[in-house]
Amino acid sequence: MDTLIKNQTYSKTAYLACCGLIIQNNQIFVSQRQPFQSYPGLWEFPGGKIEANETLYDSLTRELHEEIDIKIENAEPILSLIISEHQKVSVWHVKTFKGNPWGKEQQAVQWISRDSLALLEFLPSNRTILDYIIQAKLLT
Fold first, then answer.
1. Domain limits for position 109
2. Total of domains in the chain
3. β-bridge mates for residue 81, sequence order
4. Which of 17, 106, 120, 134 gives 20 to 30 Å between its CA and that of 38?
């Protein structure tokens, strides 16, 4: 993975979005896309678009607070996904946080085990993340 600096800003064309892998008690937190969004009904890892002049870490912190009402205490970048020539998604492992995640935007959410990952239909861009979760043994 390229080196990502917590307080470094990135141009919007370099990174389009970020997402967080939130793991507790050997389960990972996922959310379902709403009917008005692209890819309605598919599952994804919480996160969202990076705003202009926003650091990756700040974007992750803002998005997870807006979507699932948690405050990140510690997170580390683990993957950079190349979506197109000018777009990347920054994937973070959220190690510690405050709050109990829930669907603050009325989206369906759930904690799932490794065995249940295969039962949900994820966004195409999240399939690489799923492979990483299994290969890195983030869930056992």
1. 17-135
2. 1
3. 89
4. 134
Strands 47-49 and 43-44: unpaired
Half-sphere exposure for 53 (CA within 13 Å, toward CB): 0
Tens of pLDDT, residues 3-49: 455 555 555 456 789 999 999 999 999 999 999 999 999 999 999 99
CA 10 distance to own-chain centroid: 18
Cα–Cα distance measured from residue 128 to residue 90, given in angstroms and rounded to the nearest whole number: 12
Nearest one of 31, 28, 29 to 43, comparing CA atoms: 31
CATH code where residue 97 lies: 3.90.79.10
Backbone angles phi, psi at 62, to 5 degrees: -65, -50
Q: What distance lies between CA 9 and its chain's CA centroid?
A: 18
Q: Are 27 and 139 in contact (CB under 8 A)?
A: yes
- Whole-angstrom Cα distance, residue 45 to residue 27? 13
